[in-house]
Design the sequence.
């Protein structure tokens, strides 16, 4: 690898000096008992203490959390800050579940309502999925989950909202957005802003890869995280035993609970259609259809020789927030195989009789060059685009230009990969979409 390429890897993945210094000093105090414990009972106890609630729901399962914690403790090599972030995040996920059960019991009508129809963006990472979702979010008919709400889908103050006033199902009509949501005393936006600032401090280069805006939509994979059944952990840290177990485990409980959370969110802020996205869904289109109902899949595509190294650089950057033992080649080996597996699962579902019509294909280069024709393909499902919507899309792009936070440089060489390595695991997908790669 050339000196220039090594410098490039360090530029997007190296932790700040202050960050490394805190970890070194903190780790040096481990003999005095400062190492943070990551065990299930302690985490659940902390969440119950914070919320004042005890019920995680009859459908909460111990095994996913047990297996994940075992993998983290034995394999992930977390540094002290990584352990601190993990503890805080897991306590937050458990607290979300505790608050959710409180609201479901208080207002059972929430779970009785049907989910809105869904457009779900299922493309691989780094294929334009974020740009596409944020464009679709400007349509007032669409319900998305902004970053502040993804972090905390349940209000932190249990008495802040009168849920009985938010029934949006009477007469089959969907009213406008209720006044007062989010309430001015709702702390979740400020919590989101704090999280974004912390990420910028810990990983300054991350925003060149994936810009985060607390008011813009984020991936709904976090709705699955509250069941501790998602690929989020393996994107953040080295957890091979958990990853292997997860790939061979029924994910139905996570999707069933995610549907409950979505019902709560649409109760709080009505609309007409959900716009969701996460590459995780490529593995489970059958579970999406089973648990979410009326769904249309939007599948963005990009040359794998571009999207894969871009994503690998993102994972490397993520993992350095949690560990100082990050092996780029190990990251590549895990995620190149995983990428092929995800694509094969999605293709298996798609080629079944009748499922082809449930997909709309969008191509990255087209979306970047001029988004309106690409969006027009999607809106064929809903009567076509209007001049008003086109102007909203154009305005969003003027306010959020491509590469606003700088240019992200990456290559297969950064991770010791060649095109043949990509081809080995993705031949089925590349054969199906070969004509588009040749454009």
Sequence:
């Amino acid at each position: 690898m050339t000196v220039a390429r090594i410098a490039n890897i360090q530029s997007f993945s190296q932790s700040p000096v202050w960050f490394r210094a805190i970890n070194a000093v903190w780790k040096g105090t481990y003999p005095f008992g400062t190492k943070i414990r990551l065990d299930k009972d302690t985490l659940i106890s902390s969440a119950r203490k914070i919320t004042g609630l005890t019920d995680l729901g009859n459908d909460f399962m111990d095994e996913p959390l047990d297996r994940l914690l075992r993998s983290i403790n034995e394999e992930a090599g977390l540094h002290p800050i990584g352990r601190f972030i993990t503890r805080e995040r897991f306590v937050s996920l458990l607290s979300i579940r505790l608050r959710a059960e409180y609201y479901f019991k208080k207002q059972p009508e929430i779970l009785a309502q049907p989910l809105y129809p869904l457009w779900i963006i299922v493309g691989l990472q780094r294929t334009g999925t974020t740009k596409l979702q944020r464009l679709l979010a400007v349509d007032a008919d669409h319900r998305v989950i902004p970053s502040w709400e993804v972090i905390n889908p349940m209000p932190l103050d249990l008495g802040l909202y009168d849920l009985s006033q938010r029934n949006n199902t009477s007469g089959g009509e969907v009213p406008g957005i209720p006044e007062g949501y989010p309430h001015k005393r709702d702390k979740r936006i400020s919590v989101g802003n704090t999280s974004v600032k912390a990420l910028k401090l810990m990983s300054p280069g991350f925003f060149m890869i994936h810009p985060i805006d607390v008011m813009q939509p984020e991936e709904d994979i976090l709705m699955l995280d509250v069941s501790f059944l998602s690929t989020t952990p393996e994107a953040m840290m080295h957890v091979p035993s958990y990853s292997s177990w997860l790939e061979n485990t029924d994910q139905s409980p996570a999707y069933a609970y995610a549907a409950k959370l979505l019902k709560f969110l649409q109760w709080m802020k009505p609309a007409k259609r959900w716009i969701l996205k996460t590459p995780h869904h490529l593995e489970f289109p059958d579970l999406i259809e089973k648990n979410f109902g009326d769904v249309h899949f939007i599948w963005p595509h990009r040359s794998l020789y571009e999207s894969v190294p871009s994503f690998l650089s993102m994972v490397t950057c993520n993992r350095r927030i949690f560990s100082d033992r990050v092996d780029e080649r190990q990251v590549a080996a895990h995620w190149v195989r995983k990428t092929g597996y995800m694509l094969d699962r999605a293709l298996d579902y798609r080629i079944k009789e009748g499922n082809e019509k449930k997909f709309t294909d969008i191509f990255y280069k087209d979306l970047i060059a001029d988004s309106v024709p690409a969006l027009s393909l999607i809106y064929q499902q809903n009567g076509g685009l209007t001049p008003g919507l086109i102007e909203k899309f154009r305005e969003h792009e003027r306010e959020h230009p491509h590469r606003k936070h700088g240019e992200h440089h990456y290559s297969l060489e950064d991770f010791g990969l060649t095109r043949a390595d990509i081809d080995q695991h993705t031949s089925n997908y590349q054969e199906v979409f070969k004509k588009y790669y040749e454009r």
About this structure: The first helix runs from residue 3 to 13.
